[in-house]
Design brief:
single chain; 9 strands; globular; 8 helices; alpha+beta; 4-stranded mixed β-sheet; 2 domains; 3-stranded antiparallel β-sheet
Length: 248
């Protein structure tokens, strides 16, 4: 058999296998949440590890493609197949904002090139038309909501802020290393311990800046939530609101 014909057959077979993997990953995500994203597909087919996604979301990686475990042409092929699948399903495109889990809230980059069209394709979520308009709006709003900042309550006393050389009871991780809250513009926030769920929700809703406080549990081998940092005026307003309702 001619080599060119053989290569074409092999390419078609590989494409069909990739299309099946993309379809399975996309179907699973769509069934679970009512929409599917490019990130869902790349994660679903095993090309992006959860730890790599976490580092990217925390602004510690230049772009998502840098931590995707295949070459750029293969990624491009998968994304084309994904868009064809989504259109064939009659899904509705919804462009979503991706920002880093850092105080600066910088826009996350997906592609090595940074091309506007490629970035838009990555940011586009495909939503099920079976959802009501109100539900689609809620899904879009939730997807575009900036992720919670995470502040760590260190288990060791000795650590040094890479900005000022100081230390403190709380830190936030940046790419160069730990940083104190004052240096990242969160030093004025107050701590609201976990336990008062209603007060926490209201204070967070009223606070323009907030951060989840976690501490590593050696016995459980994971970070556990300790409470929330919010703006002082937000906490005071939330407490006043609850007092008024309780006295009414």
């Amino acid at each position: 058999m001619d080599h060119s014909v053989l290569d074409e057959i092999m390419n078609r077979t590989n494409r069909d296998k990739l299309a099946e993997r993309v379809s399975r990953a996309a179907e699973a995500s769509l069934a679970a949440q009512g929409y599917v994203s490019a990130l869902d597909v790349l994660s679903g087919i095993g090309w992006v590890e959860p730890s790599a996604v976490q580092r990217w979301r925390q602004g510690q990686v230049e772009c998502l493609e840098r931590v995707t475990q295949t070459n750029l042409s293969r990624i491009s092929e998968a994304m084309k197949l994904f868009r064809v699948w989504a259109r064939d399903k009659g899904l509705l495109p919804s462009e979503t904002q991706y920002v880093a889990r850092t105080p600066k809230r910088q826009k996350l980059r997906f592609s090595v090139s940074g091309d506007h069209g490629i970035e838009k394709n990555y940011r586009t979520h495909w939503v099920s038309p079976a959802l009501s308009e109100k539900k689609r709006e809620r899904v879009a709003a939730q997807a575009s909501r900036p992720p919670d900042l995470v502040v760590i309550q260190p288990t060791k006393d000795m650590w040094t802020c890479h900005h000022c050389g100081g230390t403190g009871d709380l830190l936030i991780m940046e790419n160069p290393g730990p940083a104190c809250l004052r240096c990242v513009g969160l030093g004025d926030l107050v701590f609201l311990p976990a336990g008062a769920a209603l007060l926490t929700r209201r204070a967070k809703a009223l606070s323009a800046r907030s951060a989840v406080v976690v501490r590593f549990s050696r016995s459980r081998g994971r970070y556990e939530r300790q409470g929330l940092l919010v703006e002082p005026q937000a906490l005071a307003e939330a407490e006043r609101t609850m007092e008024v309702r309780q006295s009414a």
